[in-house]
Amino acid sequence: MAGWLSKLRKGYGKKLVSLHAWNGWIVVVLAFTGLILFQGLWRGILGEGRVIIRYVHIIVGIASLLPVVYYLLLAGKHWKQLRGKTAQKANVIIVFALLVGWLISGLLLWQFRAIGPRWSSNALLVHDLLTWIGLPYVIYHSVTRLKWLKEPHRRTVKTGRVGEGLAVDASSAGRNDGLHPAAKPTAVMSRATFIKTAVGAGIAIAAGPSFLRWLGNQLGSGMDYSAAVEKDANRLIPAPSPLPASSPPIGGGSKGSFRVYTVTPIPKFDNSNFSLTVEGLVEKKLQWNWEQFVALKREVQVSDFHCVTGWSVYSNTWEGIKLKDLLRMAGVKSSAKMVKFYSGDGVYTDSLTLEQADMDDVIVAVLHDGQPIPSDLGGPVRLVVPKMYAYKSVKWLKIIELIDYDHTGYWEERGYSKDAWI
Ligand SMILES: Nc1nc2c(c(=O)[nH]1)N[C@H]1C(S)=C(S)[C@@H](COP(=O)(O)O)O[C@H]1N2
Ligand SMILES: [Mo]
């Protein structure tokens, strides 16, 4: 055996214990930051903070490689020690598989640009799936350890066994997961254990609703549109009557589920407060109310929808008005350089260059798969820019302004690339 390796294995018992503790904290940090990133609710509250949390998640995630490699170096010895202890072996394998699975899928998600949307969405599926299996497992694991600490007869620890060359303490063998050789639980619950348990309980409570939503999305074949439209307060009159290509949708119905994203409470519109305006550097400022807007000539397109966080919805049949048609009606002045989009939520904006805005498939949509777009998904009117990541597709579109300066959109100001091409 190489000298360095045997050196490393000195004090192996203690090393395993501290490795376990380190790993526990890494999982706690990743669980917390991961859940915050997952829950749409935090997007508006955190704003810029979300980008920091994303970096923390990525960096700590990559750092989790260290305990994994470190464990591998000690694994041979540990494995021998676990001879005959099937449950403990299974535990080690489960935890190890979780860490490696999280790590690989996480690295792929981090490099979403390089791998493209198909791979990203698979990586996201794996990452989420492991989380919903792994998190309860890890929480259960910490809590059962806690119980063990509370049972006095299991705490009998023979002295002089910590550290080198240990055999598992017989009195604790039933519960000992092999990483706590002759651990010495002095208090019923140490401070660190208490914090960890509190954190575990917090995560369990916070994760519940997200998990159910995720599960629902995976089991259902995408969002149930009729249900979403039904519960939705967004019923502007008259409802736009779909073109033949929309109903039934020529795309065959969208595949996948939208994750509802917003940075404000979901705004609701009706006939009394809806308007769409084209203004700024135009020959003629235009403003439509709903009746006027649904009377404009629409077209149908089928396109995929990709979020930078890894999820996609395929084969969406959108019906709406081409952005370039709206711009032509208003007459763009030669001094204009960019088109700025304001959401009716009063906060979210984004922009396209004139050249990008001139693409045929950029539309101001009012129907998705032949149905009015529910408020959750940006209805009554949302921008759709199929060739770019979905942060360009401004929801609750309210104002289109022609400007002669460079505008940085909401998420672009908070770390997303200005180059949103897929
Ligand atoms: N007004 C507004 N538009 C928005 C967002 C938002 O938070 N607010 N999020 C963007 C992002 S990052 C994505 S992925 C899509 C999500 O669309 P969905 O909520 O309909 O799934 O909307 C984009 N447009
Ligand atoms: Mo997104």
Automatic annotation (TrEMBL):
Lineage: Bacteria, Bacillati, Bacillota, Bacilli, Bacillales
InterPro entries: Di-haem_cyt_TM (IPR016174), OxRdtase_Mopterin-bd_dom (IPR000572), OxRdtase_Mopterin-bd_sf (IPR036374)
This protein's UniProt keywords: Membrane, Transmembrane, Transmembrane helix
PANTHER family in the record: OXIDOREDUCTASE MOLYBDOPTERIN-BINDING DOMAIN-CONTAINING PROTEIN, PROTEIN-METHIONINE-SULFOXIDE REDUCTASE
Coiled coil: none
Cellular component terms (Gene Ontology): membrane
Gene3D superfamilies, per database record: Oxidoreductase, molybdopterin-binding domain (3.90.420.10)
Presence of keyword Transmembrane: yes
Claim: Hydrolase is one of the keywords in the record: no
Residue ranges of every copy of the Oxidoreductase molybdopterin-binding domain listed in the record: 265-411
GO biological process: respiratory electron transport chain
Residue ranges of the TM segments: 21-40, 52-73, 93-112, 124-143
Pfam families the record matches: Oxidored_molyb
The protein's name in its UniProt record: Molybdopterin-dependent oxidoreductase
